[in-house]
Write a sequence for this structure.
């Protein structure tokens, strides 16, 4: 996940928001894989603006994912749980395509891929 924010929020506040957003993203699981969307590497980019609006770019493990219509809403709801976040929007992207290489070591260990 990258954050490419052009904001005047203090660094400490941006760091707090980043940590809390990651914690919330870790509560959203792909129903077919017992690993959260953050550790799977599905969250590509997160931007927080001065108005505490969060834009998220994420992908799916496959374009035909059965929860493609629902998962972005789950991620958006998770972002809105962070103290101070006023609005959030999730955009699905498929470039670059997701591969297992995007998974964290924690996710690979959970799935016996190490």
């Amino acid at each position: 996940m990258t954050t490419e924010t052009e904001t005047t929020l203090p660094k400490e506040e941006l760091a707090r928001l980043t940590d809390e957003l990651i914690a919330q993203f870790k509560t959203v699981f792909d129903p077919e894989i017992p690993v959260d969307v953050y550790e799977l590497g599905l969250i590509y980019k997160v931007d927080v603006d001065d108005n505490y609006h969060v834009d998220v770019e994420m992908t799916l493990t496959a374009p035909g994912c059965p929860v493609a219509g629902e998962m972005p809403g789950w991620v958006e709801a998770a972002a809105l749980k962070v103290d101070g976040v006023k609005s959030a929007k999730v955009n699905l992207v498929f470039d670059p395509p997701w591969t297992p290489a995007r998974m964290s070591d924690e996710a690979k260990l959970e799935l016996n891929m190490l």
User: Anything to note?
Assistant: Residues 69 and 77 are 14 Å apart (CA to CA).
